[in-house]
Amino acid sequence: MSLWADAAGPGARFGAARNGPAHLEAVERLKEWSRGRFALRDDDTVLVAQIASAQPGFPPLETSVAFWTADGTRHHFRVFKPVEGVVEDDLPPAWLRDSLALSEGVECACC
């Protein structure tokens, strides 16, 4: 049985839990919290993704958040919980915004 079927109940189709209304609401909520926390403009892009991790010692699901500011700088952070379990206090503090920027020449597979 798949992880998604286990989370959604017996007989649920693969991926149903992550595409359901509660998941989509959690994604939108996290986008809004990120916009507010990091003083992003309405037209700044914010991406939220739930990622399955196969690395030993990591939780099976984690949430990746990336945002781009007006100058084109990409910022990102991860929360080691499924997106529906993320609470506002899990976001990094606003004063860390500059340290979340991806350094030039560094590739990031998460976003």
Account of the protein in words:
This protein is of the alpha+beta class. Strands 1-2-3 form a 3-stranded antiparallel β-sheet, with helices on one face. It is built from 3 helices and 3 strands; from the N terminus they run αααβββ. It has helices spanning 3-8, 16-19, 21-37; strands at 45-52, 61-68, 74-79.
Brief descriptors of the model:
111 residues, alpha+beta, three-stranded antiparallel β-sheet, 24% helix, globular, disordered N terminus
Task: Specify the number of helices.
Answer: 3
Distance between the termini: 28 Å
Gross morphology:
globular
* SS-based class: alpha+beta
Major beta sheet summary: 3 strands, antiparallel
Low-confidence stretches: 1-16
Q: What is the subunit organization of this protein? A: single chain
Q: Give the radius of gyration.
A: 15 Å
Question: Portion of residues in helices?
Answer: 10-25%
Q: What order do the SSEs take from the amino end to the carboxyl end, as H and E?
A: HHHEEE
Mean pLDDT: 81
List the strand order in the largest sheet: 1-2-3
> What is the number of beta strands?
3
Strand content: 15-25%
In short:
The protein has helices at 3-8, 16-19, 21-37, and strands spanning 45-52, 61-68, 74-79. By secondary structure, the protein is of the alpha+beta class.
